[in-house]
Specification:
With about 160 residues, the protein is mainly α. It has a single domain, classed as VKOR domain (de novo design (two linked rop proteins), Up-down Bundle), CATH 1.20.1440. It is built from five helices and two strands, in the order ααββααα. It has helices at about 15-40, 55-60, 70-90, 95-125, 130-165, and strands spanning about 65, 70. Strand 1 and strand 2 form a beta hairpin. The protein starts with 13 loop residues before the first helix and ends with a helix. It is a multi-pass membrane protein. Belongs to the VKOR family. InterPro entries: VKOR, VKOR/LTO1, VKOR_sf.
């Protein structure tokens, strides 16, 4: 009777779990920004809670909804695509193995700071809130801090390798 050996499954480390959570957040961000991009491209009205401070259409059609003529939603979509691509390439391409975490941190930092600026505009300038925009900004906030945590773990692992050598 012959024995069959199967390749060992990689251990589900905290780093892998963080990576899977990052994928989930990126997919969520892509879904939200795709919807916002669709609305902008087709000049459609958002399905949104109306009343009180909520008025998505005021936010989505404001002068602040574009940057140099490019809809903010398109830029948000592009950021999520780039972050997702870098996350995928991190385990496959040496450049991203060495630099991926810092590059993702840098892009997410810029996107998060810009998102906080957009939240400020909604609350204090437009005095109108878009639940879809706030959802994107919440996703970006969680993703940013998750990428900070991953970067910190990577730096600690690098320090441990230096100590061992």
């Amino acid at each position: 009777m012959s024995s069959v050996s199967y390749p060992e499954k990689p251990k589900n480390t905290a780093g892998n779990r963080l990576k899977y959570v990052a994928y989930a957040l990126i997919i969520g961000g892509i879904i939200v920004t795709t919807y916002l991009s669709y609305l902008k491209a087709n000049q459609a009205l958002a399905v949104c809670v109306q009343g009180g401070a909520f008025n998505c259409n005021v936010v989505l059609n404001s002068v602040y909804s574009e940057l140099f003529g490019i809809p903010i939603a398109y830029l948000g979509w592009l950021v999520y695509i780039i972050l997702g691509a870098m996350l995928l390439l991190e385990s496959r391409v040496e450049f991203f193995q060495n630099n991926g975490r810092i590059l993702m941190f840098g892009l997410a930092l810029f996107a998060w700071v810009f998102s906080m600026y957009l939240v400020y505009l909604q609350f204090f300038v437009l005095q109108a809130l878009c639940q879809w925009c706030l959802t994107h900004e919440a996703i970006m906030t969680v993703l940013f801090f998750l990428l900070v945590w991953r970067l910190w773990q990577g730096l600690q692992a690098d320090d441990e390798e230096v100590i061992v050598e």
